[in-house]
TrEMBL record:
Protein name per UniProt: Dipeptidase E
Keyword field contains Protease: yes
Keywords: Hydrolase, Protease, Serine protease
Family the entry assigns: Belongs to the peptidase S51 family.
One of the Pfam families matching this protein, by short name: Peptidase_S51
Gene Ontology terms, MF aspect: serine-type peptidase activity
One Gene Ontology term from the biological process aspect of the record: proteolysis
SUPFAM superfamilies linked: Class I glutamine amidotransferase-like
TM segment ranges: none
Length: 239
């Protein structure tokens, strides 16, 4: 299925709810990289965690160190893995960090609060660089995926400094993650959220990802997901 949006997306996207959780999603990652993970370099970005009240030093360390449950992103056996903390970039010479980003095959963007991540993507300058990263794969988990959408809905705004629920809008659909993973993330909750989001949307579980290349969206799944064409009910959950 094709999507159309004002902002041209050149970076290749793998938008997940829970990371690289099954062989099908892993195969999609390898396909986007164009080589095995073991031959690829990555930078992990934990920034979204600082904006969410249930995250903190321990969970950020788990992501960076590839510990459960974050091992499904950073614990895949990358040839090299580095840390890119967006809150630090405004104090670092731009030529230095731009070089780090350009040399990476993948950006592993963790969850937390998408509005906080959005703020620092803008403030750091990384958002402006994304259109130039034609050979880079953005691998998002939860908020790390949601930040590329136009809106996340008030349901998912946890950062007290967020002016609203708007995010980057590099794709033209919104994303409801963790379907069935938490008591509050039910199909009924996704339907209510989608009715207010004002555009096409997906609800995906931990075994599902969305692959976006050249404006084309493909669902990659061994689990359950649902598409809402325009914020309205779209029928049964698919699996």
């Amino acid at each position: 299925m094709d999507v159309h949006h004002e902002n041209e997306v050149t970076v290749k996207l793998l938008l997940t709810s829970g990371g690289i959780t099954n062989p099908t999603i892993h195969e999609a990652l390898v396909d986007l990289l164009g080589k095995p993970v073991e031959q690829a370099s990555a930078l992990c970005i934990p920034t979204a965690q600082w904006g969410h009240p249930v995250c903190g030093p321990a969970s950020a360390r788990a992501f960076v160190a590839g510990q459960p449950p974050s091992g499904s992103m950073t614990g895949l056996g990358w040839a090299s893995l580095g840390l890119l903390e967006l809150t630090a970039l405004p104090t670092v010479d731009r030529d230095r960090w731009v070089g780090w980003v350009r040399e990476a095959d993948a950006l592993l963007v963790d969850g937390g609060d998408a509005t906080y991540l959005h703020h620092w993507l803008r403030a750091s300058g990384l958002a402006d660089l994304l259109p130039e990263l034609t050979d880079t794969v953005w691998v998002g988990v939860s908020a790390g995926s949601m930040v590329l959408t136009p809106r996340i809905g008030d349901l998912f705004v946890e950062w007290s400094g967020a002016p609203d629920d708007r995010t980057l809008g590099l794709v033209d659909f919104s994303l409801f993650p963790h379907l069935d993973a938490f008591p509050t993330n039910t199909v009924a909750a996704a339907e209510e959220w989608a009715a207010d989001i004002g555009g096409p949307a997906y609800a995906i579980d931990e075994q599902t990802a969305l692959r976006v290349v050249d404006g084309r969206v493909d669902v990659v799944s061994e689990g359950r997901w649902r598409r809402f064409p325009s914020g309205q009910d779209a029928g049964d959950v698919r699996s």
